[in-house]
Write a structure and sequence with these properties.
0% of the residues lie in helices and 61% in strands. It is mainly beta. It has two domains: 105 residues, Sandwich (Immunoglobulin-like); 106 residues, Immunoglobulin-like (Sandwich). Strands 2, 4, 5, 6, 8 and 9 form a six-stranded mixed β-sheet that branches. Strands 13, 15, 16, 17, 19 and 20 form a six-stranded mixed β-sheet that branches. Strands 10, 11, 12, 14 and 18 form a five-stranded antiparallel β-sheet that branches. The N and C termini lie far apart (110 Å).
Length: 226
């Protein structure tokens, strides 16, 4: 007589590899979930990671094939675009295809706190007369010296930054400029090089935030001519 055999995957979850189960992430920052899945059955399978909160799906990962007798590292990469605060999420491994899957293999809780703080950084060197970070230049007395310096905010919330120039014959403090979250703004400043011609002056330009924390600093010299 005929013998009908049913071949199927037998999937099980390995240790979850989130690194920690309490996470604090910036709004707009990436988040990665990884989880090994082993197939000890006699047929190929497929599995994916799902992240839920209060029974609602936040993110579905892509399906990964899990060949018979092998372990596949499932992954889910997502940019955080959910509300601020604590999210008691559940990471789930499902057999089958998203979004529903066919069987819940395993689940684990992940306390995700979403924050929105500015992270300000000076980008590169300041430009002076359109030159990228000169250390010395020669100019005519009375010439207006233009400065520009990009400020990157890699955090989710808005921040404030400004330029300060100090040295011989100058003490300039710029206006605080808003740097929106996840953006870059070029800060500008200028002043006229006055005083006695033929004199070399050394000055330092700094970028600082609203609390006076220095984000970048550059020292240069210039000599004026009549």
């Amino acid at each position: 007589m005929l013998d009908f055999l049913t071949h199927g995957a037998r999937l099980r979850a390995g240790p979850i590899a989130l690194g920690q189960f309490s996470l604090t992430k910036q709004l707009g920052a990436p988040i990665d979930f990884t989880w090994p899945c082993t197939n000890s059955g006699d047929g190929d399978g497929v599995a994916f990671i799902k992240v839920t909160e209060a029974g609602l799906t936040l993110w579905d990962g892509p399906p990964f094939p899990v060949p018979v007798g092998q372990t596949t590292l499932l992954s889910l990469h997502q940019t955080i675009a959910i509300s601020l605060g604590l999210h008691p999420t559940i990471a789930e491994m499902w057999e089958g295809l998203p979004p529903t899957g066919s069987r819940l293999i395993e689940s684990d809780t992940v306390a995700l706190t979403v924050v929105s703080n500015p992270i300000l950084t000076a980008v590169g060197k300041p430009q002076i007369f359109g030159l990228d970070g000169p250390t010395f230049f020669l100019i005519k007395k009375g010439t207006v010296i233009p400065y520009s310096w990009p400020c990157l905010n890699s955090g989710g919330g808005s921040g404030l930054a400004r330029l300060r120039i100090v040295g011989q014959s100058i003490n300039f403090l710029g206006t605080l400029i808003t740097i929106p979250g996840l953006s870059t703004v070029v800060l500008l400043a200028s002043f006229a090089a006055l005083g006695i011609g033929g004199v070399t002056r050394t000055q330092t330009i700094t970028m600082e935030d609203a609390a006076g924390v220095v984000l970048g600093s550059w020292t240069y010299s210039y000599t004026t001519t009549e």
